[in-house]
Amino acid sequence: MSERLRLRLPTEHDAEFVQDMYSRVEVTQFIGAHDWVETTAEEALNRIQRYRERLGRGTGVWLIETVDTASPVGFILMKPIPFSAHVKGQPEEDIEIGWHLHPEAWGSGYAAEAAELLVAHARRAGHPRLVAVTNSENIASQKVATRLGMSHQGLSERYYGTTCELFILDLRS
Ligand SMILES: CC(C)(COP(=O)(O)OP(=O)(O)OC[C@H]1O[C@@H](n2cnc3c(N)ncnc32)[C@H](O)[C@@H]1OP(=O)(O)O)[C@@H](O)C(=O)NCCC(=O)NCCS
After folding, report:
1. Ligand 1 near 106 CB (within 6 A)
2. GO molecular function: any one (predicted)?
3. In the predicted structure, residue 90 carries a pLDDT above the cut 80
4. Cα(140)–Cα(103) distance, rounded to whole angstroms?
5. Which residue is closest in CA terms to ligand 1's atom 43?
6. For all residues of the chain together, what is the average pLDDT?
7. Helices (DSSP H) in the chain: which residue ranges?
8. pLDDT band (50, 70, 90) for residue 12
9. Structure confidence by residue, pLDDT tens digits, 98-147
10. CA dihedral sign of residues 149, 82, 34, 102
11. 72 — alpha (psi -120 to 50), left (phi > 0) or beta?
């Protein structure tokens, strides 16, 4: 828990929030390589189920809620990131950190504050480093990564079979 935020697993009671958030193009436009939105309650429930199943040792997708009113504001995630097909012979997987916030919660610094909680969790789990990838046009997300102290590596084709801005946080130092 931080000053303003708490992380927890999402439940079916969050379906309305999830449905509202992922039905918005401004939320989904930089998530994934293809255009998509999810507009139905069924899709929201399936997404919640997938997020819950992501929970592992030092990995998972957590709902971010405010401490004062227990209102959901978005999701924060930490998970193994898929390498592009041309990347061969990796000694170990890389762990990605990511953030999805509801537009009504944008502009309050919540993403970086929630991400700090996950960075602490990543250190405890023994991850050597975290990576974040963003679309070049997603300036808000790049600013969150920078605020976290991640170092900008420029454009990379290393992950997801596409070209992204790559940010790395070394956790060994
Ligand atoms: C990325 C995201 C989590 C950022 O949330 P946020 O609440 O806007 O973050 P903050 O309020 O901390 O703002 C981050 C910075 O970006 C700036 N910013 C926000 N929108 C911007 C825009 N469209 N263009 C340029 N800068 C922008 C803010 O001014 C702030 O700058 P600062 O660090 O100098 O103060 C949010 O935009 C989001 O959920 N987007 C949709 C999902 C998404 O794209 N996730 C990331 C996938 S890689």
Report:
1. yes
2. acyltransferase activity, transferring groups other than amino-acyl groups
3. no
4. 12
5. 100
6. 96
7. 15-22, 25-28, 41-53, 110-125, 139-147
8. very high
9. 999 999 999 999 999 999 999 999 999 999 999 999 999 999 999 999 99
10. negative
11. beta
Number of domains present in the structure of the chain:
1
Q: Which domain holds residue 41?
A: 5-170
d(CA 12, CA 29): 25
Whether the CB of 27 sits within 6 Å of ligand 1: yes
Question: What residues pair up with 59 in beta bridges, in sequence order?
Answer: 56
Asked if residue 101 has its Cβ within 6 Å of ligand 1, the reply is yes
Please report the atom of ligand 1 found closest to the CA of residue 31: 47
pLDDT of residue 61: 98
**Domain holding 80: CATH number?**
3.40.630.30
Helices 139-147 and 110-125 pack at an angle, to 10 degrees, of 50
Ligand 1, atom 16: closest residue by C-alpha: 140
